[in-house]
């Protein structure tokens, strides 16, 4: 027994030390220099210089090597991560590793908890299957929620940006200078939208055509209002019409749509309140109102 205990202790110690060396081994000077050059060349990419991101990257590599994703699924994943605002080249691989970790980690943790609780396997199969289902759905639901929140912020901030863009263009600025001015003014209120405008400015400054930069903006965000805005600018640039007038007309339309969305959300809130009212407020109200009368009737019947 003593020999078995010593062997188990040696195995666990070697496993812990191996995991620590694999995760926290110091990077070489060449790797560090290449990472700094990549961050300098792409300032808008997600930073991976933090220790947590470095650990995640090192864990993601063997997991993706063990179960490599299909190329078509990887492209779809990259597109969804782009909608969520994650533009790093290795973001898709990290997300894939997170999916695999949740898919294997939650059932393993559930099995460990059930084993410590000494529950039989026949009665614990439902818990294990539920943990596997949660591990499969949780990363996907979280990513969809991040995409919806970011697209909603872009959608609500676009109307304010277009009003300011119309003022700056009609004041005599060209389109690129107007975008820079709008990004500076709205950086606190709408940081995600200003970041996208900065990317458009950067693409135009490095020599890309304005139409292509606007198409890339529509593809990066996935917002329908942004697609319409980019299409209007491309058409105005192609046919030589006034950009300021086109933006003013679309800004009025977008402001009307935003007001209609607010009214729709307010009317939808009344329907959403029916279920909490029926479950929590109405039973309590019935107890408070009918409780004394019920007690009085009970006293009358039992006294008789």
Describe this structure in words.
The structure is a single chain. This protein is mainly alpha-helical. Helix content is 84%, strand content 0%. The protein contains 12 helices and no strands. α10 runs antiparallel to α11. The longest helix has 50 residues. It is flat, with a radius of gyration of 29 Å. About 6% of the residues have low confidence.
Strand fraction band? under 5%
Largest sheet: none
Shape: flat
Instruction: Kindly report the average pLDDT value.
Output: 78
Helix content: over 70%
Which runs of at least 5 residues are low in confidence (pLDDT < 50)? 20-24, 37-49
Question: Would you report the number of β strands?
Answer: 0
| Rg calc | 29 Å
Number of helices: 12
Assembly annotation:
single chain
Which structural class do the helices and strands define? mainly alpha
N-to-C order of helices and strands: HHHHHHHHHHHH
Q: Termini distance? A: 77 Å
